Amino acid sequence: MSKILFGVLKTGRLIIRKYIVIKRSQEHELEVSKFNSSIYARQTRMRRRRCLVLLLVCCSVFAVSQSSAECNDVSFSTPASKLDGLKRVTRLSVSGHISAYHVKVSVSDDDFQLVRLANGNPLVLYSTLSNTPSWTHVDFLASEVRIQPAFEQAPEDVRGPLLILTICDYDTSITAFDDSSYTVESHQAGLVSMYENDLCVVFRTYRSGVFFFSMADQGDVLIAQIIHGTVHVIFDFGSLTPSRISAGKALDDGRWHEIRWLHQFDSVQLSIDGVLLNQTAPTGLYRKLDLHSVVHIGGRPADDFSQGIETTFTGCIARLQLNNADLLAFAPNEVHSQCQMPKPPSFTLHNASRAVLPFTFLPFSYEFRIIPTKGPLVTLLDADNGTLVDVLVDENMKLNLASNITKFRQAANPSIEVSNGAWHSFSLRIRGVRMEIDIDGYTVLWLEGHEVRRISQRLSNFVISASGCYRSATIDLTSVRVDGNVSRGECTFQEKCLPNPCENGGECVQSALDDHVCNCREGYKGKNCHTTDLPHSCEEWVFTKGNKQRAVKGRKVLIDIDGGGEMQPINVTCKMERDEMGVDGVTTILEHDLARPMIVTGDNKPGAVRHSLTYGISTDQMDRLVEGFETCSQFMRYTCRGGARLMTQGDERSPSSWYSTRSDKHGLQWGEAPPYSRMCSCAINGSCLHNRMCNCDSGEDATDEGVNPYSQLLPVTGLFLGGTTKSSSIEVEIGALKCRNRATFDSVTFSDRNAKLSGTQTFSQRTFDVALHVKFSHSQMSILSWHSTDDLHWFHLYVNDGKIIGEVVNGGESQQIVSDHRYDDGNFHAIYWEADSNGMLLKVDGVRKSIKASFVLPTAYSWIVGSRTEKGSTGFAGVIRNVYLCGVELALGQYARKETEKGVSLGDDGYCRPDLCQNGGKCIDKYDGYVCDCSMTPFGGSDCSKEYGMMVPMGSTIQIPWQNPAHQAMCHRIAIQTASKNTSILRSKALFADSTFNMTVDKNGYLQMMAYDGFFFHYKRHSKNHNLSDDVMHDISFCASKHHFNVTVDGMQVITIEGNWTFFESFNVWHFLDENFEGCVSRIQTGSAFPLKNPKTARLNYSGKIRFGTCPVEALSRHQMYDFNPSPGVKTTTAEASTENIKIFSVSQNRQALVSKAIVGGGILAMSLFILCMSSLICYMRSRPEGVYKTNETGENCSPSRSEEPLVHNINNNANMYASSKEYFC
């Protein structure tokens, strides 16, 4: 009883809603019909009475139906669920491990078909471990439901998924029609006039026929039929101009199909098997469907004016409902019968396959469905396998007949397209001297004469070789001889072009039984014509390398503001211009067709002269273009002569001229004046003539001009001019639309990897894509994610090891595409990522990478830029801009303005400042911090201030015997601190040439250089600007180019030589200093190598008692470094003295003490040597020292377990010297 009451209330609400719709549309109908007020009142009362009666009738009918249509939930622990008869399924849910499933249903005879969504994608059910079912709402009939994994290699669920269904009783039996029909009285079935109508038919057939027929006396028509496998619905709401909507292909295949015709006032849609294939708008003024008092099911009455409409139907119908009225329930008892449709023998020929059928009798008849490829359809062979006749499809997909006997060739007449994927009939017969070939019942090919007799006498076999499906009721196709890949007893033809998967006007062609190709329009590419190389905006075009210079003068550019979306590209002019504030920026210019000013003369009433401005784009494109910019403007000029007025015309003082906007509103202002103010630009600063609101309201010859800055009024789409007389005239000029600062191109900086920006956008398309510009320096982080409401399925764009990765996670499965190169270099990069059911494409800075795989795209809802978890520093740190998510602009700058949390800011502003990294180090902005890159300098440390040097005593040698060719360059550097004179700083030569280069300190302490190019020229120069032997650090740099050589000392250029210096790059042998040098050397740079910082990489060899340290040093410190056995009794001589000449003396008091001390000292020395050897061995085994100088800055170079001895002593006896500032040799 509760269900009955619920049904009554639900139906009541439905009728009341319909009544409200009727009442709201009365004014429109009465205006069209020109009814007077008395008729209106009378009709209103009559409608109210009819609605009340209808409410009672429908409530009773609905209550009776509801009492029998009980619904309940059932569950199945197996993927296949066999129901107790035919049921109506309204909800689905799957419980189990996280996975994704497709759904197949069968109405009868185990004929399973995939359930699809309105966009053509298969329905996907996601299983969860939750105890609460996640319902997916559906509406179909089924006697059995199956689920199968959506992925080819889905993990096996040991427990198996639990399928939960909500099913409702469906008591109407499947009705078989054999050229029979019946009628239903409309009032008995509860059918009334409606503004919204829904016709649903579930059927199976092999022939053409009519399902539903109603032709009312007042002209309303509704007819649903199938002709040659295509459904046609003819409808008319009383305008006497019937409309037709068609959809589907090869629906006469004997399988169950569902058609749904949906009318919603101004919209009519036609869906086949749940997929929306066609939609249109009704013609005429009427929108209410009035049915005939008697409607026909499975046929129509015989008449002479219903040409093109089938008369009967042969097949089975399982469901036929109009506005929820079950019309099959009214079928007479004698019509109800078991649906028995014999399935004719069939097979499928795959590519390069054929079937050979022996000639037994004529006519030779079958039905076929082939793909559009050039080749033979049927070949007639003799006993020796010689070709007699070919019936083939030419390159234009037209049918031809070619005789091999007479070489005669004939084109089909009438021409029938047989390779369109629909079922066609073929029949060949020979009667005497005439051979005829019929296609779909029409004789299109024939031969006559004695040639036909020879063919009939020699005919032995028929060969079918076109790729496609074949069936016949007269030929046993199950036992024919076949070659190649053939599927017997079934048709595996999968229609891939309905709905059309090709976007942006692409043409779909079925290229194989299970595949298609798209013939894309110019500018588009990819499997489904979704990919485009066109820029989204002028800003993006200018960002492309090489375009910035072109934009200075302006360049015509074709932009696609929604990427691969439905909107067509737009022709604009991109130009670099300076605004009023002196800031250079990109201007997007959209021009119209009014190239010259418009002049109006003569007697004209206000707004009488009209002119439309054409921009070559639609209103939707205008909205998308203008609304995406921060500012748009358009120049306007109005010149009046002879007393013409602009805003105060006549006694009413109303505007004489105005313009229209893109939203069809009237613009009643001119220039910068406020919208709808009836003023001009001069009124803003009070400069109008005679204190009027416009110069042209003064009655004098004047001009009102200005720039209209109000985006809501732009662009100007039409002019309404007038207010002139025989003695007056006006001249109007409208400039091009100019827009600046595309909102989506605003840069947003993320300085906290726990920050995020988020929003919502639903994804349910066939193709996913995202385009953006980013720059970053971290090697691992998340950029953008787009996930489902339950966070179990998502798209994810992130960085790992510096590479860009696009990941699709759906139903527990993950698919990835990874870039081949690293992009964590702190520069902007343009990223485009696309995914569809066939694979993925990743394009970074124009470099493409694609993978082909079977995909199931998730249904996403919430997008996040930055951290998904807001913890763990896994989010984004860098700058991002120009984000397009499935063609929709994400103006992140607007989101950043609203963001109150720290870590996200508008603009491109990182951590790096000019003074953070010293000595030429490069500051790498991490945006949540910074790092100094010292790799291209001879310095080190966190800020590139750390010196790498060595203390060089006399007699030492330092050299690079053969420089790595990768390190050779034209610039070099060395810094020295010495008191030595007449000594060499460096000597270099080419290993395979005679060129040399020497740099020395002469006897007076000045710099001297000599060079020889190996052929003719010797160079020798002195510099007396600096005394290099003053025991002060001096930094010497020298660079050569093709025509110059320069030497700088301490930043001052001291030597410049012109000439051919290309030989300088060939130097690859380097000797530093000589045996007379004593002092400290640092900052050695040979090309791109830094020998003191990376001795092994630079192939540095050295000998002598050299100690690595830091320059500059004081003289005392340097002497201590050379004194390895200091003693109070030793007196050090000059700095030039060699440490080898230092001797230690001791005074012996008596011999016994000396011998005892010698024995003890010898033992201690031996033990010390043993300990030293063992320590050295352990240190060597652990660290394998290579003579590389290391520090304890980070604590990572020396383990606490190793022996540590400072090389630079605390000269100043500073007890607070930090361990991190000490230097060690491990």
UniProtKB/TrEMBL annotation:
<dbReference type="GO" id="GO:0005509">
    <property type="term" value="F:calcium ion binding"/>
</dbReference>
<feature type="domain" description="Laminin G">
    <location>
        <begin position="744"/>
        <end position="912"/>
    </location>
</feature>
<keyword id="KW-0732">Signal</keyword>
<feature type="disulfide bond">
    <location>
        <begin position="520"/>
        <end position="529"/>
    </location>
</feature>
<dbReference type="InterPro" id="IPR001791">
    <property type="entry name" value="Laminin_G"/>
</dbReference>
<keyword id="KW-0472">Membrane</keyword>
<keyword id="KW-0677">Repeat</keyword>
<protein>
    <recommendedName>
        <fullName>Neurexin-1</fullName>
    </recommendedName>
</protein>
<dbReference type="GO" id="GO:0016020">
    <property type="term" value="C:membrane"/>
</dbReference>
<keyword id="KW-0812">Transmembrane</keyword>
<dbReference type="InterPro" id="IPR013320">
    <property type="entry name" value="ConA-like_dom_sf"/>
</dbReference>
<keyword id="KW-0245">EGF-like domain</keyword>
<feature type="transmembrane region" description="Helical">
    <location>
        <begin position="1158"/>
        <end position="1180"/>
    </location>
</feature>
<keyword id="KW-1015">Disulfide bond</keyword>
<feature type="domain" description="EGF-like">
    <location>
        <begin position="493"/>
        <end position="530"/>
    </location>
</feature>
<feature type="domain" description="EGF-like">
    <location>
        <begin position="908"/>
        <end position="945"/>
    </location>
</feature>
<keyword id="KW-0325">Glycoprotein</keyword>
<dbReference type="InterPro" id="IPR000152">
    <property type="entry name" value="EGF-type_Asp/Asn_hydroxyl_site"/>
</dbReference>
<dbReference type="InterPro" id="IPR050372">
    <property type="entry name" value="Neurexin-related_CASP"/>
</dbReference>
<dbReference type="Pfam" id="PF02210">
    <property type="entry name" value="Laminin_G_2"/>
</dbReference>
<dbReference type="InterPro" id="IPR000742">
    <property type="entry name" value="EGF"/>
</dbReference>
<keyword id="KW-1133">Transmembrane helix</keyword>
<feature type="domain" description="Laminin G">
    <location>
        <begin position="171"/>
        <end position="339"/>
    </location>
</feature>
<dbReference type="InterPro" id="IPR001881">
    <property type="entry name" value="EGF-like_Ca-bd_dom"/>
</dbReference>
<dbReference type="Pfam" id="PF00008">
    <property type="entry name" value="EGF"/>
</dbReference>
